[in-house]
Design a protein that fits this description.
Length: 179
């Protein structure tokens, strides 16, 4: 039940819940406390096969989605000198059969073909929606990767010098491509 303010609660006996990713608007998707769900459906349109963020309030076994998606998790960030310029490199580890994707944990996902997908998870728990950060560092720099359920707009991206993902590529808010 949507309480009208974007906060979702399940009433007793309610056993199916559908999340339509493309309908999330800024801060309007919020779950305030963990809720058991018999059948959870997550619907998302992938208009292309680029990498994109995957941050959801439920756990899922990679075996349940591996036929349609590649998923990676952050391994580390490091600096590398290329053609005399210091560049930031981010390494990821591919999810493998038998591994579980955690709720509220930032991943990257890539569909094997474009289209709308429905991921169905049985007997799960929708977790409280909250941001989660993962810190990585080099000798000189600290990187914080944060998953969030809200939209971060241009002024905040630029003001906080965030990296962003667009068209399957990582960019930096001071890059000319962002301006």
């Amino acid at each position: 039940v949507n309480n009208g303010d974007g906060i979702w609660t399940l009433v007793p006996g309610y056993d199916e819940f559908t999340i339509v990713h493309d309908e999330w608007k800024s801060d309007t998707f919020k779950i305030e406390k963990d809720m058991p769900v018999n059948t959870l459906k997550y619907v998302r349109n992938f208009s292309n096969t680029n990498w994109r963020a995957f941050y959801v309030p439920f756990a899922i076994n990679y075996d349940d989605i591996k036929d349609n998606f590649d998923v990676v998790k952050l391994n580390m960030a490091h600096q590398e000198e290329i053609d005399g310029k210091l560049q930031i490199k981010i390494d990821f580890i591919s999810m493998k059969a038998g591994q579980e994707l955690k709720a509220n944990y930032p991943y990257l996902i890539r569909p094997k073909k474009a289209g709308e997908y429905t991921i169905t998870v049985k007997n799960t728990t929708l977790k409280e929606t909250k941001s989660r950060s993962i810190d990585c560092s080099t000798v000189d720099m600290k990187f914080t990767f944060t998953g969030t359920y809200r939209t971060i707009f241009g002024d905040e991206l630029v003001g906080k010098k965030y990296y962003y993902m667009s068209g399957g590529k990582l960019g930096y808010t001071t890059d000319e491509t962002y301006q």
